[in-house]
Fold this sequence. Notes:
The structure holds two protein chains of two kinds.
Chain A: H1 2-51, E1 57-60, E2 66-68, E3 74-76, E4 79-83, E5 89-99, E6 104-112, E7 118-125, H2 139-142, E8 154-156, E9 167-169, H3 175-198
Parallel strand pairs in A: 8-9
Antiparallel strand pairs in A: 1-4, 2-3, 4-5, 5-6, 6-7
Chain B: H1 5-17, H2 34-38, H3 43-66, H4 76-98, H5 100-106, H6 117-127, H7 132-162, E1 164-165, E2 168-169, H8 184-214
Antiparallel strand pairs in B: 1-2
Amino acid sequence: MSRLKYFLQQSWLLLASSFCFGLLIAMTNAALSDRIEQNKAAKLNDITKRLLPGAEVFQPVAAEIQIKLPDGTQEQARILEVLAGDKQRLGWSFNVHGSGFAGPIELVLTTDQGFQKIMGFDVLASSETPGFGDQIKSDYYRRQYVNAPTEPLTLAKTGDPAMADSQIVAITGATVSSQAVVDIVNTFLPQIKSQMQEKGLIGNVGP
Amino acid sequence: MSAPNGSTSGLYSKALFTGLWRENPTFRLMIGMCPPLAVTTAVKPALTMGLSVIFVLVCSNLVVSLMRNLLKPHLRIIMFTVTIATFVTICDLFLKAYQPQMSEILGAYVPLIIVNCIIIFRAEACASKSGPLVSILDGVGMGTGFTLALCALSAVRELLATGHVFDIQVMPKAFVPWLALQMPVGAFVTLGLMLGLINVLTRKREVATEDPEATVAPSAPAAPVPATT
């Protein structure tokens, strides 16, 4: 009992201030989270417009698509059907994420309308090392994904980066970050593709 | 406050102005050197970082000053860290909500303000020993000094690396950009040259102010020389 009293005497200020500071952060987060989500959605749409030229309408897919992550947990994928102004489907866009060298990496991945080819990816958030790992944002690395098949990708140290195939050439000095992007794509893409086929969302695609 | 009015206002002005030049954190004390090297490629992110540091410095100084009489000596560093981390998190959320582009450019450097030693240094050296008003003024002064240093460095780097300042074309179109100044080496070179320039100017000023005393010095008894090993 006396030890508890001593502990409280010594640390009451830390406990009380931690509670107050936690409350302050929670209130700020509650007040700003909607706006932060809106900013993220706007950025996602902008990136998708760049990756799928002509995109104007972004329609969330209502079907529940569950993704099993490498750590064993499950999460629901957020998939957007991307349409042109005349409501013609241009492709699909979704957020994917995983662990990089220096922290989490969040990407926007787009595919064609029939889910046969990757149309490209862009980085939504990453804290990879500037000058090394953050070269996953470079055109050199990202171009390799354009027109690559929507099947498991492999990372190679050498090869022809201009070839549109399932082999991705690693960035020199940033192999871990290059591998992280390949792993993220391999985690999400096959699962999304198979579940969308099961639910009849892709297969007999329009014109 | 038992101090007379004159010395009180002197205390306030000292708290406010010391950080601008005499104890400028970047150019004079050389502490918190990560942002001056990392976020000074352009003026806009440097200014955003500076304003963020001012916000965190003022808020944490105020809170530390208010709780200074309750602080246990062995728990003070953890209290400072918790306080600073709170305001950095709030600042980070505000940037994500209202300046998403700047938040993205600054990336991990905004959360890293938590470990910026200027803030913990001012909490220890000033806020934990002074009243709220002095602590706030100290935060404003030190933060402004830091912001001015960031802006000066970034203006030179942006001007020579792109020909622009604040995204406004300044150099003639024939100017060939020195792209190396946007790279890490550019940060070190610019900072080194600016520190050298400031040291030269300061030394000239010190020599100019010391000269009149030089005539008095010979009559003064020589100071004992401490034994050194």
